[in-house]
Amino acid sequence: MSKRLYELGEDLRLGEVPEQMYASVIRPERYGRPADAFRTEVVDMPPVGRGQVVVRMMAAGVNYNNVWAALGEPVDVIAARRHAGDTEDFHIGGSEGSGVVWAVGEGVRQVRAGDHVVLSGCRWDESAPDIRAGADPMTSSTQRVWGYEESWGAFAQFAVVDEYQCHPKPERLTWEEAACYLLAGATAYRQLLGWQPHVVKPGDPVLIWGGAGGLGTMAIQIVKAYGGVPVAVVSSPERADYCMRLGAKGVINRREFSHWGRLPDIGDTAATAAWLKEVRRFGKKIWEILGEKRAPKIVLEHSGQDTIPTSMYLCDTAGMVVICGGTTGFHADVDLRYLWMRQKRLQGSHFANFAQCRAITELVSAGLVEPCLSWTGNFDDLGKAHQMMYDNTHAMGSMAVLVNAPRPNMTSIDVA
Ligand SMILES: NC(=O)c1ccc[n+]([C@@H]2O[C@H](COP(=O)([O-])OP(=O)(O)OC[C@H]3O[C@@H](n4cnc5c(N)ncnc54)[C@H](OP(=O)(O)O)[C@@H]3O)[C@@H](O)[C@H]2O)c1
């Protein structure tokens, strides 16, 4: 018999969509510590539009964007949506996950009820004028991050997504492994292979910040798969070992250096000399790892303010620093002399288009890239998981929570 609400993991008939569901909800009055911001609530199911499908979520991946959503800064995502005309006063996050297509809306052609899928984290209007004129959908004025800029994300019993967000789940992976590779993997793929002519080529050294993190673990493996030479930066010996096991040529511990943050003022010669001494010492570490005096052709950036001066200085002549985030801050200094004299490129990059999501999914299906899942939590652990990420005390690689999937050997870590 049909019910209004089912428990997480409870059996229900394929195609049946209840009126209500469980979701992990952020509300403005709880903005602040991620550990306190998320709370499991019962909400009404959202409507299903043309070209959309309902996915019964099995697991969801944890990413940094919902640390920002929980903090309520730098963007108050709920206020921003209400300003744009939405009526909901809450946010359901989650920009990736795995599940079963449970029901399909009008006009859906590429997926069917019963398909096992992984979900990508950006939406756009396929009929938008810029996309029809040939723009990459990621540059469309209609593009939004699902589960961050848009609500009704993966941290829910059911998700309503656009058909093109569905990609075939790599069969060899568990639900939780499948839930956690696409966001970081496709983002790193676009950074490393999406910006011609600055794409990874055999023998190219690539410097990767946060090598043991979500983006970093994906980047090390992608660079390796394309014949490049990954050099990772981390903050502990354990993280260094992890990167080496993933295929890094060598690892640098950033704690051994002190020149982080914004550049000294141009006129401050003593501070500038001290900064240059330190950044050159860092650069020598790269030469030691490579066994020759070569600079990185590509620097994969996401740490931002603390590291951009170093990235821009060390990047090869005519090379590229490609950035998709600013974990340590958004006001990054660039000494323009190195930018123009050495003809370097500073390229912004944001998630990935459909083809790039498919490409990383094929690499994962083929076993050339592993999802690097190292922590799996319960649905109610979402606040803890995001708190660990905020505190940079989380496990290496990626994290996932189980939604409707059965609960195997779980590790759940308490956060004070
Ligand atoms: N635009 C997009 O589409 C997109 C997609 C994915 C992620 N992002 C952004 O990219 C950033 C990283 O995401 P992630 O999933 O990789 O997060 P993550 O798993 O937490 O990894 C980030 C890594 O950054 C390193 N880090 C922390 N503080 C640092 C500092 N002061 N200097 C240098 N490195 C530092 C840490 O490694 P160590 O402490 O070991 O150095 C950490 O492992 C986030 O800001 C996220 O929002 C953007």
UniProtKB/TrEMBL annotation:
<dbReference type="InterPro" id="IPR020843">
    <property type="entry name" value="ER"/>
</dbReference>
<dbReference type="Pfam" id="PF00107">
    <property type="entry name" value="ADH_zinc_N"/>
</dbReference>
<dbReference type="InterPro" id="IPR013154">
    <property type="entry name" value="ADH-like_N"/>
</dbReference>
<comment type="subunit">
    <text>Homotetramer.</text>
</comment>
<keyword id="KW-0560">Oxidoreductase</keyword>
<dbReference type="InterPro" id="IPR013149">
    <property type="entry name" value="ADH-like_C"/>
</dbReference>
<keyword id="KW-0007">Acetylation</keyword>
<dbReference type="GO" id="GO:0043880">
    <property type="term" value="F:crotonyl-CoA reductase activity"/>
</dbReference>
<dbReference type="InterPro" id="IPR051603">
    <property type="entry name" value="Zinc-ADH_QOR/CCCR"/>
</dbReference>
<dbReference type="InterPro" id="IPR036291">
    <property type="entry name" value="NAD(P)-bd_dom_sf"/>
</dbReference>
<feature type="domain" description="Enoyl reductase (ER)">
    <location>
        <begin position="33"/>
        <end position="401"/>
    </location>
</feature>
<dbReference type="GO" id="GO:0008270">
    <property type="term" value="F:zinc ion binding"/>
</dbReference>
<dbReference type="InterPro" id="IPR002364">
    <property type="entry name" value="Quin_OxRdtase/zeta-crystal_CS"/>
</dbReference>
<dbReference type="GO" id="GO:0005737">
    <property type="term" value="C:cytoplasm"/>
</dbReference>
<keyword id="KW-0521">NADP</keyword>
<keyword id="KW-0694">RNA-binding</keyword>
<dbReference type="InterPro" id="IPR011032">
    <property type="entry name" value="GroES-like_sf"/>
</dbReference>
<protein>
    <submittedName>
        <fullName>Crotonyl-CoA carboxylase/reductase</fullName>
        <ecNumber>1.3.1.85</ecNumber>
    </submittedName>
</protein>
<dbReference type="Pfam" id="PF08240">
    <property type="entry name" value="ADH_N"/>
</dbReference>
<keyword id="KW-0963">Cytoplasm</keyword>
<dbReference type="GO" id="GO:0003723">
    <property type="term" value="F:RNA binding"/>
</dbReference>
<dbReference type="InterPro" id="IPR010085">
    <property type="entry name" value="Crot_CoA_red"/>
</dbReference>
